[in-house]
Structure formats: C-alpha cells, structure tokens
Amino acid sequence: MNEEINKPLYIRIQEYIAELILSGKLTPDTKIQSERDFSEDLGVSRMTVRRAITELVNEGLLERKHGSGTYVAKPKFTYESSELVNYVEAMRHRNIATASQLLEFGELAASRRLAESLQIEIGNPIYRVVILRCANRVPIVLERVFIPCARCPALEEWDLEKSSVYDLLTDVYHIEPVGSSQTVEAVAAADPVAKQLRVDEGFPLLMLSRVVIEKKAELPIVFSQDFLRSDYARIHTDAQLPKHNVKTQEDAGKEEFTKLRA
Question: In the chain, where are the structural domains located?
C-alpha cells in the first residue's frame, strides 16, 4: 500500500489509463478524453495528465493524431525474424483468425534483377504470385512471390489461398528450404500496394525482400517482396554482440616483456 502511495502521481494515472485499455474498457481506435477533461475528473494538473499520456504513447498503447486527439492504438503482431517466411503459420500459432486472397497469378520472363536473385537466365519463365494476408479481417501483409517455373511446375493447379507457397514447396514439390537472406526497409505505400492494403498513399510500410535457399541444390527457390502495415506489425530479432577483447594482466605482462626484449 505504501509503495502505491509513494508512486509519482503521473505513474498512477498512467497505470489507471493502461488498465482501462488492457481490460478492454477502452478499445482500439477509441478516442480518449482530452487532457483537460482528465485533469478535471481526476483533480490533477493538465501537466501531470500530459506526462502520463506521453508515456503511454511512447509505450505504444496510445497514439496521437494531429488535429484530432489521442486514440487507443491498434494492437501490433510481433513476428520473430525466423517466422517471416510463413505468415500463415505464424498467425496460426497465435490463434489469430486468418484469411488469404489471391490477387494476381501469372507467368513472366525473368528480368535481370529477378534472374540474379534466383540465379537463372534472363528471360526464363517465372511465376508471379500476389497474395493478401488478413488477420482478424484486417489486411496486414501483401506478399509478392517469384518462383522459377522449372522448379515448381504446374503451380497453378494448387489453391494458393488455402495453402501457403512454402507449405506447397515442402509437401508437394519436396523442396526443403534450408535458409533465407532478407532485408527490411521502411517504404511509403504507393499504388497499387496502398489500395491492396487499404491504406492511404504515403502510409508507412515495412518492406521485406527475401531469398529462400533450397537445401538439395543449394540454389535460390523463391524471391519475395512482402509489405507489412507498420500500424499492425513489428519485427523482433535477437543478435549476439561482438566480443570485446579485454587484455588480461597476463597478456599485458607478456606484451611489456616483448617490448623490453626488443
């Protein structure tokens, strides 16, 4: 009890608003009270309320919209970097209702960039697949997948809305992906991606460019560009820090002895 009393007032207000959000009493996209209304209702200064709200904005529970007010932020799906190859499987693990829509399917001649990425000849036929992935009925990810036709013949015979491309690779074509190389960058949504993800042009997206390597031939089997809505998705990755070379007393002694001998 004493611990609660000793907490700064802005932290107690911050926890009060956070509890309203986490309990579901304030739902995503709900506009919260103004700082003035909060200060009058709680009997505190607007500066104290502003600090509490700022902390919640920094934590991602609230978001400020210029000229409109402060709203409860949409929950974000956190993907581990290792999960990014198969979004459908990743969302299933989180018990998230998923749906897929095949937007485009066709063949095209490999451009220089695609030929280099897939290690095939320029002009070789490749499949181009564009799929929209939805989570809880909201479009989250737009996948653009490129696969050499020779490595996955008759891909058009399969239902790509019900099966992910990566499931088909392993289950149908018996191709085992052994690893991938991917880069992530921030981009602004432009047509047709903006329309497909149902966001405004210029909306911030995360673009993942990926090459998946097949185990048996040790060759690229898939090149993809995925666009993730930044208001619904975040990416988590672990990294090992480089070891810092610290000289021991023994090493320092050996170094000094070497200098004396020289």
Answer: 2-72, 77-236
